[in-house]
Specification:
CATH superfamily of the largest domain in chain A: Thiamin diphosphate (ThDP)-binding fold, Pyr/PP domains
CATH topology of the largest domain in chain B: Rossmann fold
Number of domains of chain A: 2
Shape of chain A: globular
Strand order of the largest sheet of chain B: 1-2-3-7-6
Helix content of chain B: 40-55%
CATH class of the largest domain in chain B: Alpha Beta
Order of helices and strands of chain B: HHEHHHEHEEEHEHEHHHH
Structural class of chain A: alpha/beta
Largest sheet of chain B: 5 strands, parallel
Radius of gyration of chain A: 19 Å
Number of helices of chain A: 11
Helix content of chain A: 25-40%
CATH topology of the largest domain in chain A: Rossmann fold
Oligomer: heterodimer
Distance between the termini of chain A: 45 Å
Radius of gyration of chain B: 21 Å
Order of helices and strands of chain A: EHEHEHEHHEHEHEEEEHEEHEHEH
């Protein structure tokens, strides 16, 4: 079993899907000849041809809308938005058509497609390249929203997303593309959507996160452990549908919850999880649920970005507040 | 000057593209469309339809273009294109059902390759490009026709659809019904282009302008474009110049932005009258045929509205059931709550 990066795991999963599923095509800006700006689709055009790995014009709405037509016509497109911050021209297609054609046509027409988007900050990129607006997509009925943080999950979740009968937004944490390595099976495999992962069991507090912030969240758990606090770490993995059972079970057991994400706080997805926990677990909680998040500002540019992203120290400080409440 | 085969007085100025039997079929279809449309407006005024967007005056553009399709070609059209959708096999009762506010109006039976009508303006043309492309990937010769208005050509997705279709040589036919008005905005204010058809050149595809009230001219132009698409020749653009005789929708008052004289001048160019005059002057149509066609159409429309109104509304549980293929657990819980509220469980 090769030890590979998250980017390589996605590449491997896409290659397997193209190999094993005749109706899969990839489409996006620069996904073919150059293998994508992050090289996630590297080599796939050579292997599967330009008819299946399609370099599209620079047109996000067109990618989504033409992809929708392909999907309704019986193809399984895996579409790429070059960065999450470039996905907004496609929002009308996603919200007005892709997410709701099943309902509009009462199952006659469906859009089983995946939209991959590199997302998140921490690489000092230009404006619009560091967005983490997963809550926008999680708010839209009819979509599923998946955010892996590990190579193995990325490969297995992506395969499940590609075979899912409904549209899936698949968010890829840019700063983890090459930051984590893991053993990933070479053959195709599935990780189910809608199942959170208890990465590390613990008894004193539950730390919940997803995607890129899992790295800092794991480090915070290490730091807490060194100080004698046993933190349970949950990787939500799928924002929609949300694994409410795993979250509530953990909250009830530890009685203390911190939710971490890098998106702005107001109406961020941590608010949904905090609301869920108080609706179902309030009388078992020892302290209010705390959010450690990005601020309600535009993501700062490279030289001030460190003021924005939650750090290990902020997560640990948040956990201590909850532990001491 | 837009291409014309049949003048408003019903005189041929070029060879007709169809035989006389097909011409009679087109006239009968346009009569059905006119009666459907007037019924739609009347039912809305009675509160039996939620909203209605009339297409009177545009029957030739819709019936003439769809008549050039194969029965299993794709049609991707809008809320004002009920005549076209019906002509391509979309059941009339489902067209009415949608306007009564029933989701089943978006669910044509399986062999009918017609998408539910697009309600937002301009977002659907890219879908036709994808559908035609999917057919090519499947090795099928089906093509896609998309209908839209002059207003939609100002939307960004018009550009993206035309550009994708041109760049990839997709077998998609774009037909713009330039009906003069996007609600209150005149076409001349919509674009500085002299003819909307001229836009096609920028996408490397042929663009023609035809008299959209001349069913022969629309049919001939669409036939050429469809044949080209099916043969792998790529996309084409047709501008059918027509006029929306009625309001934008049942909520619109055209007297705020255009004169009755202008509308009256377009009534003189009515698409149905001109084909009827042509067939009458050739001894192929008369009062008996007219009565028969109108009686048939009225009965068909009556049956359709009766069937549409007989559809039971979705239950509280059913509003959840087509959100996903399978209900995720959190949504199943909401469904249970919604059903409890109305004692469905």
């Amino acid at each position: 079993m090769p030890t590979i990066t998250l980017a390589q795991a996605i590449n491997q999963s896409l290659a397997k899907a193209l190999e094993e599923l005749d109706d899969v095509v990839l489409m996006g800006e620069d996904v073919g000849l150059t293998g994508g700006v992050f090289r996630v689709t590297d080599g796939l055009r050579d292997k599967f041809g330009a008819d299946r790995v399609i370099d599209s014009p620079v047109a996000e709405s067109g990618i989504a809308g033409v992809g929708f037509g392909l999907a309704v016509g019986g193809i399984r497109p895996v579409l790429e938005m070059q960065f999450m911050g470039f996905s907004y021209p496609a929002l009308d297609q996603v919200i007005s058509h892709i997410s709701r054609i099943r309902n509009r046509s009462r199952h006659r027409f469906t859009a089983p497609l995946v939209i991959r988007m590199p997302y998140g900050g921490g690489i000092g990129a230009a404006e619009h390249h560091s967005e983490s607006t997963e809550a926008l997509y999680a708010h839209v009925p009819g979509l599923k929203v998946v955010v892996p943080s590990r190579p193995r999950d990325a490969a297995g979740l992506l395969r499940t997303a590609i075979e899912d009968p409904d549209p899936v937004i698949f968010l890829e944490p840019i700063r983890l593309y090459r930051a984590v390595k893991e053993d990933v099976p070479e053959e195709s495999f599935h990780v189910p959507l809608g199942a959170a992962s208890v990465e590390r069991p613990g008894n004193d507090i539950t730390l919940i996160s997803w995607g890129a912030m899992m790295k800092e969240t794991r480090a915070a758990a290490d730091e807490l452990a060194a100080a004698g606090t046993s933190a349970e770490v949950l990787d939500v993995r799928t924002l929609v549908p949300l694994d409410r059972q795993t979250i509530c079970d953990s909250a009830i057991r530890t009685g203390r919850v911190v939710v971490v994400h890098e998106a702005p706080r107001t109406a961020g997805y941590a608010a949904e999880i905090a609301a869920l926990v108080q609706e179902h677990c309030l009388y078992r909680l020892e302290a209010p649920v705390l959010r450690v998040t990005g601020w309600d500002t535009v993501v700062p540019l490279k030289r001030a970005e460190h003021h924005y992203l939650p750090t290990v120290a902020r997560i640990v400080a948040g956990a201590r507040r909850v532990l001491e409440a | 000057m837009a291409d014309q085969i049949l003048t408003p007085r019903g005189e041929l100025v070029a060879e007709p593209p169809v035989d006389t039997a097909e011409a009679v079929r087109l006239l009968r279809a346009m009569i059905v469309a006119r009666i459907y449309d007037r019924k739609g407006s009347a039912l809305q005024k009675q509160g039996r339809l939620a909203t209605y967007a009339p297409f009177e005056g545009q029957e030739a553009a819709q019936i003439g273009s769809v008549a050039a399709l194969a029965p299993d070609d794709w049609l991707v059209a809008t809320y004002r294109d009920a005549a076209a959708m019906w002509m391509q096999g979309y059941p009339m009762e489902l067209l009415f059902a949608g306007r009564t506010g029933h989701e089943l109006g978006g669910c044509p039976p399986d062999p009918v390759n017609v998408m539910p009508p697009s309600i937002t303006v301009g977002g659907h043309m890219v879908h036709a490009v994808g559908l035609a492309w999917a057919e090519r990937l499947h090795g099928s010769s089906r093509i896609a026709l998309t209908l839209f208005g002059d207003g939609a050509t100002s939307e960004g997705d018009f550009h993206e659809a035309m550009n994708f279709a041109g760049a990839f040589g997709v077998g998609c036919v774009f037909l713009c019904q330039n009906n003069g008005w996007a609600i209150s905005l005149a076409t001349a204010k919509q674009t500085a282009a002299e003819r909307i058809a001229d836009k096609a050149a920028g996408y490397g595809m042929p663009g023609v302008q035809v008299d959209g009230n001349d069913v022969f001219a629309v049919y001939a132009a669409t036939r050429t474009a469809v044949d080209r698409a099916r043969a792998g020749g790529g996309p084409s653009f047709i501008e059918a110049v027509t006029y929306r005789i009625g309001p934008h929708s049942s909520a619109d008052d055209p007297s705020r932005y255009r004169s009755p004289e202008l509308t009256e001048s377009w009534r003189q160019r009515d698409p149905i009258d001109r084909l009827r005059r042509y067939l009458e002057s050739n001894g192929l149509w008369g009062a008996d045929q007219q009565d028969d066609a109108e009686r048939d159409a009225a009965a068909q429309v009556e049956r359709a509205i009766t069937a549409a109104e007989a559809l039971p509304a979705l239950t509280a549980g059913e509003i959840f059931d087509a959100t996903y293929a399978e209900l995720p657990a959190p949504l199943a819980e909401q469904r249970r709550q919604a059903r409890e509220l109305v004692q469905e469980v």
